[in-house]
């Protein structure tokens, strides 16, 4: 089969399509013929040599995919049949023509969505769902500050926060990104390049602060995050795009607010955790992607590339210009 590959860490120019061995499903797994896979920041970090796959995971890039079931492994129970369309959360391996996956990680594709749209759901939307509900305990009326509001996770979190009755606020680096976020349901957006988002959030909440922060930035935002966090607020760190170092009285300021700092990664979670997450998301959220849903959710796609243009796709993601997901279509 064809798969995205790189021989050594480096820039987007290191990537190319090559022929590799097609995997075979073991007990409880299915083989998915991949139609599309979406890019994630983890793919960029892995290509740069900064984020190794979890033990036992494929070294091929790709944390989510959509396609059709090509083969059922031994003792594969459940309702899935050969030929069924499905989308899936992966620890790796999605950017190839075939990938094996535990049957429990499969999700049906909602009515009215294309395979490219479906490929943009698993990693981003399961992450946003996990951040808001499993970890953030979001409540109706909560002010939720979402950093990188125009990213895949950000565009998902805006819609899920609204569905929960919360009030999403976002940060982004351009007026275009803020306008897109507001179209999706953000109550307000702050351009971090032009204003202090912490002061703006405090002003919007009339001094109360935000109850929940979804933070993929890390080090460079810590002081502003603590400043605009409400009493008893929850700050969830799931990325370090702004650096790893913290200098200053973080703990005393957080303690004064009685704030909770929670860290999380999804890729390295164990099979049982991911299975529970997929089950809860499939039951509670997936029906709302259907064209018949009155509160319809939509994955936001920025660009779709053929897999042969993998270098261009990575370079575009690194430019930070995308609003929503970047999708790769695999050769059929």
UniProtKB/TrEMBL annotation:
InterPro entries per the UniProt record, alphabetical: ADH-like_C, ADH-like_N, ER, GroES-like_sf, NAD(P)-bd_dom_sf, Quinone_OxRdtase_PIG3
Domain Enoyl reductase (ER): start-end pairs: 10-328
Name this protein carries in UniProt: Quinone oxidoreductase PIG3 isoform X2
Coiled-coil ranges from the UniProt annotation: none
Matches recorded under NCBIfam families: quinone_pig3
Lineage, uppermost ranks: Eukaryota, Metazoa, Chordata, Craniata, Vertebrata
GO molecular function, one term: quinone reductase (NADPH) activity
Assigned keywords, A-Z: NADP, Oxidoreductase
Organism the protein comes from: Callorhinus ursinus (Northern fur seal)
Pfam families in alphabetical order: ADH_N, ADH_zinc_N
Database matches in Gene3D superfamilies: Medium-chain alcohol dehydrogenases, catalytic domain (3.90.180.10), NAD(P)-binding Rossmann-like Domain (3.40.50.720)
Keyword flag Endoplasmic reticulum: no
